[in-house]
Amino acid sequence: MPADLAVIGLGPYGLPLAQAAVAAGISTIGYRTGPEQGSLSAAEQRRMLAQGFRTTANATELGRVRTAVICAPTPRGADGGLDLGQVETAARTLAARLRPHTTVILESPVPPGTTEGHLLRLLESGSGLRAGRDFHLAYSPSRVDPGNRDHTPANTPKVIGGLTPACTESAAAFYGRITDKVVRARGLREAETVQLLETNFRHVNIALVNEMAALCHDLGIDLWDVLRCAETKPFGFQAFRPGPGVGGHAVPQDLTAHAGRTLRMAELAQEVNNRMPRYVVQRAAALLNEHGKSARGARVLLLGVTYKPDLADRQGSPAQEIAVRLMELGASVSYHDPHVPSWNVLDHPVPRADSLYEAAADADLTILLQHHRTYDLQGLSVKAQLMLDTRGATPTGAAHRL
Asked: Tell me: the pLDDT tens digits for 123-172?
């Protein structure tokens, strides 16, 4: 029996959409565009399969659905812009099977203008059909927040922008089966730019507090107390937290590679956030030195190497660069993460601590990179010889904070 929906791309954007669709009773198939890493647990994926979700390698099935959503990853390319290779592959695969009256929606992060430009041409040339007349074409920014139990696809408003008003309404009718609220953008470019703004908003604000963290450390000011007080303001302020770097699948864009235009704030934010792993290592080396130890030969334990708490996803995690820089200083690095059973750095396995408290007691320095719920930070801070907390999660005075 043909499915209602085909999700093309089963990575960080596609799997959550498929999960929401099958939970809403929509018959859904998934089609992979390449090696992809999603954020759903094995139990969640088993539940999806029990609800009727299935994956297929048969591209012919893509031509039997009413709605096809392209969710292919768009990582940063060699030129600094987004690599649209998997989106192009997905579009060509779909175009060869595309049938009239299908609704095609792009959810992958792309530069504004991509849907009505490059994607439209690929779909029309490969199918012989005309967008807006023979099939509907729309864009909807993915609003996935892995692990967030408060904001789910069902209660997160979905932005829709279509090539024509009819395209918008067709896409809105589909998403209306999944979410409580659909927001109609004026058009494709406006919807694409929503994604651009939301992603850069996150990176710019994290960059601001990351710079504040370094400044406050130099001035002897407790940034975490500053944040605690500042977030009591009921208007005009939203609290962000500093950290060892910014991970995740959403890549900040300054548009230089695609449109020849620069968003200076996004560019600066990226520079600031990219410096954070180096800053963490500098702080670590300084702490060791203050306690009469050299980074060379020091035993350093890294706690939490994923990009987000309580998930196994390591996409863009700063832990990789921090480990490399520590090793370059001559430190002996080990790690603990309840979600990561093995971890390689520079093509070599990093020793995993089996007994967490013993490892913390044995290490010259323990660095908290990610605050997983399972970590008893009060107990760990007591056991550790020396601890650097990059997340501000330990009790006040229990560890050195970023």
From this structure: 999 999 999 999 999 999 999 887 777 888 889 999 999 999 999 999 99
User: Taking the model in full, what pTM does it have?
Assistant: 0.91
- Residue 52: CB atoms within 10 Å: 13
Token pair belonging to 140: 């909807």
Q: Give dist(CA 384, CA 372) in Å, integer.
A: 17
Reported as a single tens digit per residue, the pLDDT across 18-73 is 999 999 999 999 999 877 666 777 888 889 999 999 999 999 999 999 999 999 99
Angstrom CA distances, 399 to 368, 379, 396, stand at 10, 11, 7
Per-residue model confidence as pLDDT tens digits over 364-388: 999 999 999 999 999 999 999 999 9
Distance CA 118, CA 279 (A): 40
Residue 177 contacts by C-beta under 8 Å, 6 or more apart in sequence? 21, 24, 25, 26
Describe the chain by its helix, strand, coil percentages, rounded to 5. Answer: 40, 15, 45
C-alpha–C-alpha distance, residues 357 and 256, integer Å: 48
Residue 123 half-sphere exposure toward CB, CA atoms < 13 A: 33
State the DSSP code for 252.
P
Q: How far is CA 59 from CA 68, 81, 96, 152, 392, in A?
A: 12, 29, 9, 30, 48
pLDDT tens across 219-254, in order? 999 999 999 999 999 999 999 999 999 887 777 765
- Measured CA to CA, the distance from residue 118 to residue 108 in angstroms comes to 13
Element containing residue 273 per DSSP (H, E) = helix 264-290
Q: Smallest Cα–Cα separation from 129: which of 175, 161, 159, 163? A: 163
Can you spell out the DSSP letters for 35-95?
A: S------HHHHHHHHHTT-EE---GGGGGG-SEEEE-----B-TTSSB--HHHHHHHHHHH
Question: Residue 1, SS3?
Answer: coil
In contact, 108 and 75? CB cutoff 8 Å = no
pLDDT for position 255: 55
Q: Pick from 201, 307, 331: which is nearest to 245 by CA?
A: 307
Q: Are 366 and 384 in contact (CB under 8 A)?
A: yes
